What we know:
Elements: H1 2-18, E1 24-43, E2 47-67, E3 72-81, E4 87-94, E5 96-98, E6 101-106, E7 109-130, E8 135-155, H2 159-168, E9 206-223, H3 224-227, E10 233-251, E11 259-262, E12 265-277, E13 282-295, E14 298-301, E15 305-308, E16 310-325
Antiparallel strand pairs: 1-2, 1-16, 2-3, 2-4, 3-7, 4-7, 5-6, 7-8, 8-9, 9-10, 10-11, 10-12, 12-13, 13-16, 14-15
Amino acid sequence: MNKSFIMACCLVTGTAAAAPNPSYSEIRLGFESIDYSEALNDLSGLGRLTQDATVSNPTIRQLSYSGINDDWGVYIGTAATIYTGLDTETWYVNDFTDPNDSSVTHQFGAVQTNDFKVKSNEIALSAAYNMTRALQVTMGGRVFTTSFTRSDFQFAQPGAGQFDQVLQSAPRGENDPVARFNLPGQNNLGSGDLEGLPGNLQSVVSTTEDQMSIIAAAGLRYDSKLQDAFNKFSWYADAEVTLPVYTRVQNTRTIEKTLSETFNGWGIQARAGVRYQVFKSIAVMAGVDASYKERDAISESDGNRRTVPDIEYTNLSLSAGIQWSY
């Protein structure tokens, strides 16, 4: 009888030791703040073109974890913009070398404004190796997409007028048109003040850009729930380094050509949050997600040079929701 009892205890202990981490799924709703900036450091070989815009959007975040065995588990996560907000984007031209006198550099400042909205979507798949019960090394990939729209283009004065005057004074060939500062949809070739020259405005005066990146990621994650599934309070934190393996960009201003590049940037991502168990398998939770990405400029030339500039993308999200274990 005693031998049977001892053997049963050993079997139970062995089973517990080999049991995988608890599995769970979560869904959170909240708001994200996307900061998007572009820089073209070689504007006609003479100056720098930059802009800045920050947009707030409602967002949804989902994550599922499945424990495979005592050593391995799998994460599947998604993040998506629900609805796009709107911000006023401002463009700046600075450090512009005078085309008639290379010793003179112009700081035009703001030259253009327009409405701007941006959204992003992501799906991620990662394998997790348990260094300890709660500390994991994560390795995987994700597909990340962003899309923005610009509309309602306006000149920003006095910078736009000053920039245009310098362009008009640039040396040109006998049959070359006068260089002008045009808004998207314009084709001013004559002379005169900008505001008095609406130019050949097209019926559609908005531009969009879609970007898709396949990203490799590796990082660390700590989750106290995996170590003590019976504690009402739990918390988690993780950080990852990301590398875009392949990027494809299409802009309506270069619609006939899709630009692509490999290994042309980097990024980091971090998440942290807390949970409180309200029922045996249900917890309420709140978390913060932050990501930062850089993409280098992509250029192609087949007689016509097409370029999408360097970008910096920052997304900060605050959200709350529920988690259920199974």
